[in-house]
C-alpha cells in the first residue's frame, strides 16, 4: 500500500467528519500532539533500560494516549465515542507524585537541559505546553473539544517536567537553578503541592 494519496495536494485534509484546510486550528492542535509524540519517542531512545524501566513503560503508554488525543481532536462528527479516558489523567497524576517524591527538593526555576534524555524531555514539555495553548485556542474559537484532552495535555507537561528531573537525578547530573530565580516552588515533599506553572 502506498503512503501518498495526492488528496492533500491542494492544501486540504480530512478530519473524521469533514474536510478542512491544513492550516485549520484543529489540524494545528492534533499535528502538535504528533510532534510531541515524536519527541517522546526520541527521549525513549536516549533512556538506558536498566535505570529507566518505569519511565519507558510510562512513555510508551503516553504515546498511545497521544494517539487517542489526536483521534479525539480530529473528530467532528456529532456522535462520537471519546478515545481518551479520565483514568489516563489519574494515572499521570499518580506518577507525577511518585517522581516528585523521588527527586531532590525543588525551590527555584531550573534551566532545561542536563543529560541528553532530560534535555529531550524538556523539549517535549514545551511542545506539550504549545499543544495545550492550541487546544485552548480551538475551544475559544467555538470548536467542540473533549475536556479530557485539555486536562490530559496539561498534566502531561507536568509529568514531562518531573521525568526530566528524574532523568538527570538517576544519571547523576544535578539540575541547574536559574540564577535570578526567587523561591517559586513550595516544599513538595512536605505539602504534596507544587507552585510555579499551572
Question: If you had to describe this structure to a student in words, what would you say it looks like?
Answer:
Keywords: ATP-binding, Cobalamin biosynthesis, Nucleotide-binding, Transferase. The protein has 198 residues and is mostly helical. It has one domain (12-191): Hypothetical Protein Ta1238, Chain: A, CATH 1.20.1200.10. The protein is 57% helix and 4% strand. It is built from six helices and two strands; from the N terminus they run ββαααααα. It has helices at 25-46, 53-73, 86-102, 116-140, 147-170, 188-191; strands at residues 12-15, 18-21. It has a two-stranded antiparallel ribbon. A hairpin with a 2-residue loop joins strand 1 (12-15) and strand 2. Helix 1 (25-46) packs antiparallel against helix 2 (53-73), helix 1 runs antiparallel to helix 4 and helix 4 (116-140) runs antiparallel to helix 5 (147-170). 33% of the residues are buried.
The total domain count is 1
Classify the beta-strand content into a percent band. under 5%
Architecture per CATH nomenclature, i.e. the level-2 architecture: Up-down Bundle
SSE order: EEHHHHHH
Fourth-tier CATH superfamily name: Cobalamin adenosyltransferase-like
Structural class: mainly alpha
Shape: globular
Total strand segments: 2
Helix content: 55-70%
Note the gap between the termini.
45 Å
Looking at the structure, the CATH topology is: Hypothetical Protein Ta1238, Chain: A
Amino acid at each position: 500500500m502506498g503512503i501518498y494519496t495526492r488528496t492533500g495536494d491542494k492544501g486540504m485534509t480530512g478530519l473524521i467528519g469533514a474536510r478542512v484546510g491544513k492550516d485549520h486550528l484543529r489540524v494545528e492542535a492534533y499535528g502538535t500532539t504528533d510532534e510531541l509524540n515524536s519527541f517522546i519517542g526520541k527521549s525513549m531512545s536516549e533512556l538506558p533500560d536498566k535505570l529507566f524501566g518505569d519511565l519507558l513503560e510510562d512513555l510508551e503508554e503516553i504515546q498511545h494516549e497521544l494517539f487517542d488525543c489526536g483521534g479525539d481532536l480530529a473528530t467532528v462528527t456529532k456522535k462520537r465515542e471519546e478515545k481518551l479516558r479520565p483514568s489516563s489523567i489519574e494515572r499521570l497524576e499518580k506518577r507525577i507524585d511518585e517522581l516528585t517524591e523521588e527527586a531532590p527538593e525543588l525551590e527555584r526555576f531550573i534551566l532545561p537541559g542536563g543529560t541528553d534524555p532530560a534535555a529531550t524531555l524538556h523539549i517535549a514539555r514545551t511542545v506539550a505546553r504549545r499543544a495545550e495553548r492550541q487546544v485552548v485556542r480551538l475551544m475559544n474559537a467555538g470548536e467542540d473539544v473533549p475536556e479530557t484532552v485539555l486536562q490530559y495535555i496539561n498534566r502531561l507537561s507536568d509529568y514531562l517536567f518531573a521525568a526530566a528531573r528524574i532523568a538527570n537525578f538517576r544519571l547523576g547530573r544535578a539540575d541547574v537553578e536559574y540564577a535570578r530565580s526567587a523561591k517559586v516552588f513550595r516544599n513538595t515533599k512536605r505539602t504534596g503541592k507544587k507552585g510555579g506553572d499551572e
